[in-house]
Amino acid sequence: MKKAVRLDKFLADAGAGTRSEVKKFIQKGKVQVNGVPAKKSEIKVSEEDEVVLDGNRISQAPEFVYYLLHKPAGYVSATEDKRDKTVMELVASDRKGLFPVGRLDKDTEGLLLITDDGALAHELLSPKKHVDKTYYAVTDGCMTKEDVQRFADGLEIGEKNPTMPAKLKILSTRKVEETELEQYPSGWSSEIQLTIKEGKFHQVKRMTEAVGKKVVYLKRISMGVLTLPDDLKKGECRQLTAEEEKRLKESVVIK
Ligand code: URA
């Protein structure tokens, strides 16, 4: 017989939200227990009950939880920081031990995975695993066909070895307006998509600098099998769907 716990605790432990958030979900009638909308947070449920939030079946206290965050600029990728706001402030969960998988710079936006699954994070970040990371960037300076080749060949960015081959796609290039010259002093700007297999410090910015241009906007759009969903707004965070979680786990072999 599984232990019965309060419905709000059951939901919070499952990573569905903070305790106060899940209470609101219950009040709003978003939670069903065995097919009936639950009216009170205090009712007791166990794993044998079918608990459904917004149409998704919730399992009691999964071993690990996984969140997709659309990181906005202005937040640091850390669990604590003395000066800056951290990405953890955007994750609606009371679970202990959550951390961001890798780092995006304070001014970088986009996909960041937050979890408490250390082994999975280790595999995703391992330099040997070469998990693809794709970024959208806007540059000061015109990216060229020669740059595409240089990114593919590998670049010297002041590390022991050149970077691994990276796939650069130039999406567009334009001459900027007079009024934009402060941001784009070269007078030109390109929009690019770049896929890298490593995760060196400031890698996209340093690779772009190595070909004489500058990143003025950076956003991660995918990491391995995970893609930033169009409907996840800047600053929003949600749990991975069961399907995303399955694909993610299948994509990394944990030793
Ligand atoms: N490369 C960078 O330069 N910055 C990031 O935040 C991520 C990749």
From TrEMBL:
It holds the Pfam family S4. It is an enzyme of class 5 (isomerase). SUPFAM superfamilies: Alpha-L RNA-binding motif, Pseudouridine synthase. Its EC number is 5.4.99.-. GO terms for cellular component: cytosol. It comes from the Bacteria. Residues 5-63 form the RNA-binding S4 domain. InterPro entries: PsdUridine_s_RsuA/RluB/E/F_cat, PsdUridine_synth_cat_dom_sf, PsdUridine_synth_RsuA/RluA, PsdUridine_synth_RsuA/RluB/E/F, PsdUridine_synth_RsuA/RluB_CS, RsuA_PseudoU_synthase, S4_RNA-bd, S4_RNA-bd_sf. GO terms for biological process: enzyme-directed rRNA pseudouridine synthesis. GO terms for molecular function: RNA binding; rRNA pseudouridine synthase activity. PROSITE patterns: PSI_RSU (PS01149), S4 (PS50889). Keywords: Isomerase, RNA-binding. Belongs to the pseudouridine synthase RsuA family. This is Pseudouridine synthase.
